[in-house]
Amino acid sequence: MRLIILVILICILLPVGASVQITEIMYNVEGKDTGFEWIEIYNDESDIDICVHKLFEADTNHYIKGDVCTFATGDYIIIADKPENLDFSYTILDSAFALKNTGEELCIRDSEKTDLFCVTYSSDWGADGNGESLQLVDGEWCSARPTPGQENLCEQVNEEIEAEEPEEQNQEDIIEAPKEEKIEEIKELEEKQDIALTPKQPTKITSSVVYESKAQENSNLPLLLLLAVSISLNVLFIFSKVSK
User: Fold this and answer.
1) Running DSSP on this structure, what letter comes out for residue 171?
2) 164 occurs within a structural domain
3) Domain membership flag for residue 4
């Protein structure tokens, strides 16, 4: 009896291993999400007519329709609220839903109203308006860059960038000592600058020199006058001799 109860509980708690699985959910698109939400489903068994199935959002059932309803084994199909808003190169089928940003239950049911796959997602799982989607990989849900119509890859690249402290360097290592040739050149330049910047001292003519020259001129004046008188007398004497 206990074994039967255990089997029943396992069947209830685990997802049904059916042919159709919900593998990706874009419930909160970055920016405006109305009309841009979508769900990816995957067929891992035989071909089926997916258009006879229903998408259940909580307790509300939604149709699935499109031009191509054959869901081949190993294929992915996108179910969208507004297929015309999506620029995907994969099969997109039309439906009518508005996924809650906080989370809700989603189910795929067949024509006999049997749940083929159900999942209750939550915003706590991630992909909450940051451009990522919820993806199913190996039975686990994760948040990653959207891969509509392709195999999901939830490899999280969490590279920790450690701030490396710069090595302490001595001032001698940072500033190279100038070579001897450079030192000589610097000294020559400094000497030239000192010469260029030193102002020329103007020649000062003191008043004592001026007065001395004038005194000398005054002391020679009597001699010059005496010489002039002597010359004049000699000239007169010569003229008197000639006239006789």
Assistant:
1) H
2) no
3) no
User: What is the extent of the structural domain holding 85?
Assistant: 19-144
Cα angle value 104/105/111 (rounded, 5°): 145
Please give the share of the chain, as a percent, with pLDDT higher than 90: 50
List strands edge to edge, sheet with 92-94: 92-94, 76-80, 38-43, 20-26, 133-137, 140-144
> pLDDT digit string (tens) for 14-29?
444 458 999 999 999 9
Q: Into how many domains does the chain fold? A: 1
CATH number of domain containing 117: 2.60.40
> Which pTM does this prediction carry?
0.57
DSSP alpha helix (H) spans, 47-143:
none
Reading the block at residue 16, the tokens are: 């049904």
- Residue 37 in any domain: the answer is yes
CA atoms within a 13 Å half-sphere pointing along the CA-CB vector of 228: 6
Pairing outcome for strands 92-94 and 76-80: parallel
